[in-house]
């Protein structure tokens, strides 16, 4: 099984991947590590860390797709998390491969962002990975990013979870969904 976790930066993808690793003993790959490894290894890799999610996603997706297919072919489990898994990429897999992929797309509602921007979103954006740079996005920019991500998810028809009020309560529903889907996939 391959669990794919995608969301706008600062939504809790890496924390979720770490929690799933601890619960299921499935390793995870942070796409940020892949991105920085490629960039630090070859400054002519076709992107910089400051490029848009779409530009970097286009460059990284063929590599990620190959990693996903290799794990499926070898019947190995992995969690891959990062904002560069764009919702429409899920359609790149045939039905047989799709049965072994569990995509999870997360977002915050506008209301959640407005009420929790500084006290939770900015405060906990470094819960797992240390980022030395301060949050540069404004509240308005973050709302726009989440709104656009939600629209992409709906357009692609992927399973989508939006945190509306209480992160801790609502994220438990996502973990329950993952557990249920994992049981179904394990029984195949």
UniProtKB/TrEMBL annotation:
Keyword Transferase on entry: yes
UniProt xrefs under Gene3D superfamilies: P-loop containing nucleotide triphosphate hydrolases (3.40.50.300)
Record has Kinase as a keyword: yes
GO molecular function, one term: kinase activity
Swiss-Prot/TrEMBL keywords: Kinase, Transferase
Origin superkingdom: Bacteria
Protein name (Swiss-Prot/TrEMBL): 2-phosphoglycerate kinase
């Amino acid at each position: 099984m391959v669990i794919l976790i995608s969301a706008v930066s600062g939504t809790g993808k890496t924390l979720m991947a770490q929690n799933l690793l601890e619960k299921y003993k499935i390793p995870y790959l942070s796409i940020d590590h892949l991105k920085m490894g490629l960039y630090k290894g070859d400054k002519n890799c076709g992107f910089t860390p400051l490029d848009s999610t779409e530009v970097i996603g286009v460059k990284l997706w063929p590599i990620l797709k190959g990693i996903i297919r290799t794990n499926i072919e070898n019947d190995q489990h992995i969690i891959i998390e990062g904002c560069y898994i764009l919702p429409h990429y899920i359609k790149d897999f045939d039905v047989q491969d799709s049965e072994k992929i569990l995509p999870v797309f997360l977002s915050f509602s506008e209301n959640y962002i407005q009420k929790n921007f500084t006290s939770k979103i900015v405060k906990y954006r470094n819960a797992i990975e240390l980022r030395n740079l301060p949050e540069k996005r404004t509240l308005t920019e973050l709302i726009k990013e989440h709104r656009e991500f939600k629209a992409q998810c709906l357009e692609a028809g992927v399973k989508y979870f939006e945190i509306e009020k209480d992160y801790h309560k609502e994220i438990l529903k996502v973990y329950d969904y993952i557990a249920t889907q994992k049981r179904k996939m394990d029984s195949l």
